[in-house]
Amino acid sequence: MLRKLLIGTALGSGLAFAAHAQDVKEVEMLHWWTSGGEAAALNVLKEDLAKQGFAWKDVPVAGGGGDAAMTALKAMVAAGNYPTASQMLGYTVLDYAAAGVMGDLTETAVKEGWDKSVPAALQKFSVYDGKWVAAPVNVHSVNWLWINKAVMDKIGGTEPKTFDEFIALLDKAKAAGVIPLALGGQNWQEATMFDSVVLSTGGPEFYKKAFNDLDEEQLKSDTMKKSFDHLAKLVTYVDPNFSGRDWNLATAMVIKGDALVQVMGDWAKGEFNAARKTPGTDFLCYRFPGTDGSVVYNSDMFGMFDVPEDRKAAQVALATATLSKSFQSAFNVVKGSVPARTDVPDTDFDACGKKGMADLKAANEGGTLFGSLAQGYGAPPAVANAYKDVVSKFVHGQIKTSDEAVTQLVNAIEDAK
Amino acid sequence: MTTVATQIKLTPEHNARPRASVRSRLQDALPKIVLAPSFAITIVFVYGFILWTVYLSFTNSKTFPSYAISGPRAYQRLWRWTFESDPPSSWYTSITNMGIFGFLYIFICLALGLFLAILLDQKIRGEGMLRPIYLYPMALSFIVTGVAWKWFLDPGLGLEQTLHQWGWTSFHFDWIKNKDFVIYTVVIAGVWQASGFIMAMFLAGLRGIDGEIMKAAQIDGATTFQLYRRIVIPLLRPVFLSAFIVLAHLAIKSYDLVVALTSGGPGGSAWLPSNFMYEYTFKRNEMAVGSASAVIMLMTITAIIVPYLYSELRERPR
User: Fold this and answer.
1) Which of the residues A190, A241, A243 would you substitute to probe the B interface, choosing the one with the greatest number of B C-beta atoms within 10 Å?
2) Does the distance separating the beta carbons of B64 and A385 come in below 8 Å?
3) Domain span at residue B202?
4) How do the pLDDT tens digits run along chain A, 417 residues long?
5) N- or C-end of chain A: fewer Cβ atoms within 10 A?
6) Could you tell me the keywords of this UniProt record (chain A) (predicted)?
7) Is A18 a member of any domain?
8) Are B4 and B29 in contact (CB under 8 A)?
9) A381 vs B179: CB contact, 8 Å cut-off?
């Protein structure tokens, strides 16, 4: 009996050893890129890995800008069943890293020279405690204007360089009977627009202090009050039916020429591309007036989990492929964003993409690359959502004056810290 | 299971029959054995997690549960938010919306359901066809109801747009875009969905009433109104109880309807406490606050349902 048991144990452990010796040639990936363009973009990575012999196990969780996926991830991690990698945003990476479930890619990072090519502002989220825990996939920037060229020509407008010129342009559109500003009245869209307004009103230094460092002096300053006044002014140019509209419907209004301009991140370009519109001839991309030279970014990251030894090889392959120049270029051309490393050639990109890449490089070197508070790259989610609440309540009239908005903003951020 | 077995052994009955077979013992214990798994599951997954939530609400949990008790800060914050009405805090909006929605939804569904049931009970022709038409919305999920009504109520797509195209250009109905009225659109969609089901419940109740009583009342000269007011509706009391409980729990858990219909409403003005709970626990990484709000929801429901159940069930002489 005892002998049998011993043999059984020996056999069992032998099997386990054998399994260890053989690497698992599979990448398990949790993400929420399920819509057409996004899925196509991810397919590029899938094929890259297939060439190296790694199978791709897809764990797509659609919907809610990743909320559903994050809930699923929480459950997987709580059950100890880590995926190889997961699409993640900003502070989520740091939260998981603080919980000690992220892997360590420093070796690969050094070999591939990530610390030199990835902007320092992004490394704040992909490096935790000196260790690389995530591979940034792209950089989106939110301070863009998307303008319908035909409408622009009809009203005889030119690129607005200041906020006042922007208002004058909107007035022209209004006079011509076009909806001047296409906005989706959901809190994150309103707050995303407000990010640009604050940067334009207060300048780069003010934006950084207020929305990245959460400096109370700046948050309750007159500049912030003026920013809210500017936001109130902009809201007078939207159509009455804007509340609750999805962002891509607002983009569609610009594409169709019902509206002149949308203030939105560069993912809007994906919609223009899908409608077969060309930058320069069908639509125009300008930086939000008064924010040229600065970039307010958010970035998709692939968080790398602390997987067992036999899955590490696949993880390293995934991370290397993700930050390879060829993938960065191919993926971001499709996605509408710009590469997460600044040394990728811009030959394949369209005019807006080229401008975005040049701006990112300049902002990185000039220290004017800032995390978007609305997109969760300025402060942890509790603060970011408190901020969205205040902006949205201001836009929809629960908060009536900009004085009150400033007070509420300071209180809400203090409360959420 | 061992305790059950010993108890059986000790009962005098079994002492009198010393050779109680295994088979008969098993038969005695069978219902308990069969129920044990579901009992255990309920204990763990309902009551266990209620206690777990209560525990979490006293910790400092953020993204992940933390196990160190750190005091009632979450409750203090909720308490403070309860009185922040200008501008309304998200919690204040949620609980006032719950009051408005809960009251109107339950009341209108009961009234409309009863009314429709009484009409259908008039031995009309085509009842077999009408009944499923009213009942059908219940077969739809909240998400479908929400999206359909969202399009219907949207001023740029649905009712208002259509009437404008037909020539009635002064028609104006933008409740779904209005922060003060958006919660009433949730009531409209909710009532549309549930009132048919409530009607079916009442109809079953009406069919269960003894025709003899009705005839006796008619012979005594009762008018139709008196008949319903004094005899039928009081006899339907158990149906009211069931309908109330079904509606109350639908009202409290209607999270998906708000999301699908309004995606939170302008400036979060359509939130219900369930939206608040989800938002804080999973999106804002304030698990302690989310848990505290869940505990408060549970206590509120208990405070309403328990006295009602008690008063209704005690009167049954049994």
Assistant:
1) A243
2) no
3) 80-314
4) 445 544 444 444 444 444 444 678 889 999 988 777 678 888 888 988 999 889 998 888 876 567 788 888 988 888 888 899 999 988 889 989 988 899 999 999 999 899 889 999 899 999 999 999 999 999 999 999 999 999 999 999 899 999 999 999 999 999 999 999 999 888 899 999 999 999 999 999 999 999 999 999 999 999 999 999 999 999 999 998 898 888 888 999 999 999 999 999 988 888 888 888 999 999 999 999 999 989 999 999 999 999 888 888 899 999 999 999 989 998 888 888 899 998 999 888 999 999 999 999 999 999 999 999 999 899 988 899 999 999 999 999 999 999 999 999 999 999 888
5) N
6) Periplasm, Signal, Sugar transport, Transport
7) no
8) yes
9) no
* Same domain for B258 and B213: yes
Q: In three state form, how does the secondary structure of A149-217 look?
A: HHHHHHHCCCCCCCHHHHHHHHHHHHHCCCEEEECCECHHHHHHHHHHHHHHHHHHHHHHHHHHCCCHH
The amino acid at A329: S
Considering A321, A337, A364, which residue would you say is the last residue of a domain? A364
Number of CB pairs, chain A paired with chain B, less than 8 A apart: 82
Residues B78 and B69: their CA atoms lie apart, in Å, by: 18
Domain count, chain B: 2
Instruction: Judge whether A10 lies within some domain.
Output: no
Domain match, A262 and A284 both: yes
Q: Do A382 and B285 touch (CB under 8 A)?
A: yes
Cβ A288 vs Cβ A199: under 8 Å:
yes
d(CA A278, CA B37): 63
A113 and A76 co-located in one domain: yes
CATH number at residue A374: 3.40.190.10
Rounded to the nearest 10 degrees, what angle do helices A222-235 and A187-207 cross at? 140
B64: nearest CB among A99, A241, A404:
A99
Helix, strand, or coil (residue B234) = helix
Collapse the DSSP code of A29 into the 3-class scheme (helix H, G, I; strand E, B; otherwise coil) and give the result.
strand
Range B100-137 burial, b when 16+ CB lie within 10 A, else e: ebbebbbebbbebbbebbbebbeeeeeeeeebeebbeb
**Nearest partner of A87 among A45, A29, A139, A28, judged by Cα:** A29
The verdict on A223 and A268 lying in the same domain is yes
Residues B35 and B92 in one domain: no
**Which structural domain range is residue A103 located in?**
26-140+298-364
For residue A99, the chain B residues in CB contact (below 8 A) are 63-64
> What are the residues of chain A with a beta carbon less than 8 Å away from any beta carbon of chain B?
67, 70-71, 74, 78, 92, 95-96, 99, 185-187, 240-241, 243-244, 380-382, 385-386, 389, 392-400, 404, 408, 415-416
The C-alpha of A68 sits at a distance from chain B's nearest C-alpha, in angstroms, of 9
A250 and A376 together in one domain: yes
Looking at the domain assignment, is residue B36 inside a domain? yes
B45 and B167 together in one domain: no
- Chain B residues with a Cβ under 8 Å from any Cβ in chain A: 62-64, 77, 87-88, 90, 154-156, 174, 176-177, 179, 262-269, 279, 282-286
